[in-house]
Amino acid sequence: MAVYSVTDPATGSVLNTYDEITDAQVGEAVDAADAAFRGWSRSSSVAERAALLREVARLHRERREELAQLIVREMGKILEGALGEVDFAADIIEYYADNAEEILKDQQLSIQGDGTAVIRRSALGPLLGVMPWNFPYYQVARFAAPNLLIGNPILLKHARQCPESSAAIGQIFHDAGFPEGAYANLYISNAQAADIIADPRVQGVSLTGSEGAGSSVAETAGRHLKKVVLELGGSDPFILLSTDDLGATVQAAVDARLDNSGQSCNGAKRFIIADDLYEEFLAKFVERMGAHAAVEPLADDAVLGPLSSEEAAASLQKQVARAIEAGARLALGGGRSGAFFEPTVLTGVTEQMAAWSEEFFGPVAVVYRATDEADAVRIANGTPFGLGSYLFSTDAEQAARVADQIEAGMVYVNLVLADSPELPFGGVKRSGIGRELGFLGADEFVNKKLIRTA
Fold first, then answer.
1. What is the C-alpha to C-alpha distance for residues 420 and 437, in angstroms, rounded to an integer?
2. Consecutive sets of 10 residues in the chain, 454 residues long: mean pLDDT of each?
3. Sheet holding 412-413, edge to edge
4. pLDDT at position 1, please?
5. Helices 396-405 & 373-380, crossing angle to 10 degrees?
6. Would residue 231 show up in a list of annotated catalytic residues for this protein?
């Protein structure tokens, strides 16, 4: 039987293992979720569900130190980042509690003829969530909070390396007062997840993960006519066209690349620099990237910790080596020790190289020279991905013009690391389907029922 395990990325030590549950236990979990939908979901009010979420947010804050330590040892997140993630998860959950009535109020329609018409939002039923390891709490919060507010029970399959953080989340929902079946943390296999998707009582699935995982889940969901939300990979561009403070812009670029040790789907990965700024930007960027060594995640001054596993670091090192063999130039780094990967900067990547269209999931930045605005847009849009993007310009008209042309689900102008509970998150192209966070995140798995009255 396959296991879920806690393997400390900093040491490679296996600290704990957990067995998958049986098929019979999976069936019991789906039974309980269906019962919660037919009972609790239909009998509880929006205000009551919001109150439960508010308690979940409070418990996240109360247990933040314990929760943070769990993901430090599960996936190597630096302590400051782990604490920040717990706080952000609490903020997301509280956002949905605070805006519950507005999110779920009837939408009045202007109609032709007499009478009234409204759109009334109601729950669909149990949902499966398949969550990744890179943000164990944040990812669950942005999926579970709006759907529990609506009344959709949650069946949660977390990443295999996050068994203890996922169990801690499940305990919080239980301790907050959610009834049996409303939220279930499940140690299950991919095959068992496919069986859950196929169950006619389960109404949809949300996955954050790789393109391969997304394709597989979408195929299974499509076969059974189930709604999907997918948040997949990203190779987000950071476009610099002009600046009145190059030092601050370079620092923003470094922060955007090294956040979560470079393991963010929407982290800036490709740095597209206007020709007249390229040389000075590259010199400063290499200097500041090189100032951050990968260190133990509990170190007081940690900016960059280990990657999620030694296997992940080895894979990234091979990816960098392939790019260099194909003609890319190494401006910084490229090495590793165990799961600790050096900040790395590549230049000279061309459209003929695989590296042009790949995602580097770690502290690896690729810097491009753009001849003009149009060339910058061409480079930015030249990958299969379209998750987020970052645009720096001192010209407001230029910024608006370029933002309209970028093929991405999100554009941040003159700022980075500005995610917030009210801002929708999601991409286009091969970066996914649907949105999470904000009001749009609460509008994916709902019955938008028309009620027309004479």
1. 8
2. 89 96 98 98 98 98 98 98 98 98 97 96 98 98 98 98 98 98 98 98 97 96 98 97 98 98 97 98 98 96 97 98 98 97 98 97 98 98 98 98 98 98 98 97 98 97
3. 329-332, 344-347, 364-370, 268-274, 236-240, 390-392, 412-413
4. 54
5. 30
6. yes
Tokens of 52: 């439960």
CA-to-CA separations, 45 to 298, 312, 366, in angstroms, rounded: 43, 45, 50
Contact (Cβ atoms closer than 8 angstroms) between residue 275 and residue 372: yes
Three-state DSSP at 158 gives coil
Q: What CA–CA distance (Å, rounded) separates 387 from 429?
A: 8
* Four-residue CA torsion sign, 117, 121, 123, 127: positive
Query: What CA–CA distance (Å, rounded) separates 9 from 2?
Result: 20
DSSP one-letter code for 381: T
Residue 404's pLDDT is 98
Which one-letter amino acid corresponds to residue 121?
Answer: R
CA separation for the pair 393, 153 (Å, rounded) = 45
The pairing of strands 236-240 and 268-274 is parallel
Domains and CATH numbers, the chain: 3-232+431-453 (3.40.605.10), 236-420 (3.40.309.10)
Burial 20-55 (b: 16+ CB within 10 A, else e): bbeeeebeebbebbbbbbeebbeebebeebbebbbb
Contact 81, 68 (CB under 8 A): no
CB 228 within 8 A of CB 444: no
Cα separation, 209 vs 228, whole angstroms: 13
Q: What's the one-letter identity of residue 77?
A: K
Q: Can you give the length of the chain in residues? A: 454
Active site residue 265: yes
Rounded to the nearest 5 percent, the helix, strand and coil shares of the chain are: 45, 20, 35
Beta bridge partners of 385: 429
Name the pTM for this structure: 0.97
Instruction: Identify the pLDDT of residue 2.
Output: 67
Q: Which of 265, 373, 436, 444 is catalytic?
A: 265
Beta bridge partners of 384: none
Q: Are 297 and 305 in contact (CB under 8 A)?
A: yes
Active-site residue, from 20, 74, 164, 231:
231
DSSP state at residue 160: T
Q: Select from 78, 63, 87 the least CA-distant residue to 170.
A: 63
261 torsion bin: left (phi>0), alpha (psi -120 to 50), beta (else):
left
Q: DSSP states of 295-352 as a string?
A: --TT-TT-SB---S-HHHHHHHHHHHHHHHHTT-EEEE---EETTEE--EEEE---TT
